[in-house]
Queue: 2 jobs
Job 1
Amino acid sequence: MNITIVGTGYVGLVTGTTLAELGNSVYCVDIDEKKVEGMKNGIVPIYEPNLEEMFLRNIQSERLFFTTDLKEALDKSEVIYLALPTPPGEDGSADLSYVLKVAHDIGEMMTEYKVIVNKSTVPVGTADKVRKVIASKTKIPFDVVSNPEFLREGFAVEDSMNPARVVVGSSSETAKDIMAKIYQPFTNTGVPIIFMDEKSSELTKYASNSFLAVKITFMNEIANYCEKVGADVDKVRLGMGSDDRIGHRFLFPGIGYGGSCFPKDVKALIKSGKDDDFDFQILQATEKVNIAQKVILVSEIEKYFKGDLEGKKIAVWGLAFKANTDDIREASSLDNIALLTAKGAKITAYDLIAEENVKKLLGDKIKYANTMYDALEGADALFIATEWPEFKNPNFDLMAKKMKNKVIFDGRNMFPLEVADQNGFYYKSIGRKTILN
Ligand code: UDX
């Protein structure tokens, strides 16, 4: 099949590459000329494990093309995926202007039947809006389908090649048949394709992300309570997760959830609810708890230094919002750095992958180290903000040598308590007892 993808951001690029890998001819359209030129020359504009290999393979096999010309791509394709940004507005609602602008252009340019697929995370009712905009520009038949994306950053290729499910919202039998054909390589291997109406499909995406945000936040509250009563959240987590109605995943407590999806989607669902006179009480509580959780260790750091952080040298390990990505959107590291700096602390950060993005944002307001150990030179304390695998088994002797004080505040529970204890560190993590060395 010939497919156009409009928007080569995270979702668009991964979806396009995946659909090419499944044997389709895919035309990726973007308004950014420099980016398109780069992609034509084999430059992948984002960091994502295993993407480059698949991207280059499909360019070479002449199944993956890039252009700034929407009309050219449109004329070649029966199916058009919209993978455009839907940034949150001031009030948290998703801004649909990019999606509706392209819908308008498609309406003006199309000369035969098309299926328009909404891949972006869009509020309930967006398929109807897109339909209306296109219908106002053309009499040619078309269908609008909702097909939300569930991939995780850092696992985008793995997730998009092995989806847990494919959700398709469509009220047209023709469009359903076309979507079933596109995803046949998946359904053939047992991946369920779940058909529903457009609105239910749109809500499925928000409900899934919000539920996971609630799950994490619930565990963060349990962790905070563990500290109050002297329980160990790692034990509670294992005990709870063994019930397969609960499951082990997304029960890891820490310094809150971040990234481009959870915070935005929770906010947007609360706002959509408000617009429909509906009060999402659980989500409002989740948002509030998460904001506080992100900086929960700062008061502990202050307590340790008896309220005086002026001139204290704090090393920060990890800047990305989670491991395996260079994405720093809504990263807890940034909230902590802002707060610690405001209280007079001096930050030296280390993150091999995300450093460049933080530099663009913070410049020389903080220092950057080339290795995780260099960051510790003369440090009064270490703060761990991201669960990069390289932090899991550090050389504690070398750490002790470099640091002024053997003190760790760990927002991601990287070490077993006994390991920190045996190595003689003061160790404060989340939902577990503090090791008072
Ligand atoms: C998420 C969804 O998982 C994905 O299905 C959707 O399409 C987009 O949003 P992503 O934002 O890439 O993906 O990251 P994810 O791995 O889900 O983590 C989100 C946040 O939750 C991170 O800040 C992570 O550190 C935090 N998290 C995750 C926890 O604090 N504890 C956990 O147990 C799991």
Job 2
Amino acid sequence: MTLRTLIYGARQIVTVTRNRNEKLLCGKDMHDIGIVKSDAVGLSLLIENEDIVAIGTDDDIAREFEGVEVDQKIDATGCCILPGFIDAHTHPIWAGDRVHEYAKKLAGATYMEIMREGGGIGFTVEQTRLASDKDLLVSLVARLKRMLHAGTTYVECKTGYGLEWPDELRLLKLLEQARSHVPIGISITYCAAHAIPKNKTAEEMTDDIVNNQTKALKKLMDEKELNVNDIDVFCEKGVYDIEQSRRILLAGKEIGLSINFHGDELNYTGSAEMGAEIGARAISHLECISDEGIRAMAEAKTVAVILPHTGYILRIELPPVRRMIDAGVPVALGTDANPNAFSSAMSISMNLACVLCRMSLEEALAAATINSAAALGISDKYGSIEVGKKADLIICRCPSWEHIIYQFGDHTHLIRHVLKHGAIV
Ligand code: NIG
Ligand code: FE
């Protein structure tokens, strides 16, 4: 049975890829996103089950589909329709908070100083271990619902506050469970190598991930107990070095995961060059990327996931996004939502990307939709408004789509409906 939904009367439809079937946008194409506008007539979008089947003026769609039964009509008079945001980098499953560290950071303590004193990720790992499954699931689901209602229809979710296998496995299982509680799309990333546990060295932890953890993970994936997409590591001076990172990432690749990791964040480590060499689909942060790293990522078409909120909160220099875009690196955006960078609003990431990284509004939107989809390997079905793609949409009550970015941190009142796979959520 076909369920048809017609959205009509819209003022603007921001298609992002102009129905050209692009899987990611680079260079000038990031600025040249398809915006269908009409002040004189309304615009329609027809959905069959989960998929977009037609886009056009109200009159054209009415004529083309005359006599076709529509089950649900959504009046979008005066509204703008955008693709749902795709958050390419989050750490959503944890307990406790780090508000006590916030004041320390404001007073000048660095991220690594706090981490070395036992704070940071180590603190959150302890709090997460102490929390019950129920409490972790409840807080995870609440965070995911908040994201969905703020327009994020697909999100990358990392583990990483377990570190040791039994704790990481618990987080993986809870992330799986969350799928049945919230209709947001979830891409799971295995990030046991997020920090070094107290009782191990980085080398011992690397051996454990390569020899034991990834093997155990593969077994559960083969048995269809878990559906994990990517492998991650915090490749950073004083955490996992470049060779340990390479081993961890290749062990993940070996079991069928895609490479998507934290690199060149606080120090230059050669992450971008190494990631491009081993076929990483995405690398996040890149505040300290080299020119050679930019060249390597552009050539390999490895997606750079920019997290402006993190640089902002840590008061570090932001990545050289203009140089990346000019060199042809596909740039995506994420919130990095975690107890350090406490925001899951993609509108804030886009605003910071524009102001601090000097991206245009169009580039920021392309980065938050089609290129984030590419970072997760899902841009064949998600990330733009195109015939044949999934109907993950935001219907906004504003005179033009830019308001979603312009109204800094205050955009949710503009969102009239979020649609996931064609259904209002
Ligand atoms: O992307 N850099 C490592 N991971 C996170 C921070 C996680 C945390 O501090 O809890 C990041 O910024
Ligand atoms: Fe992160």
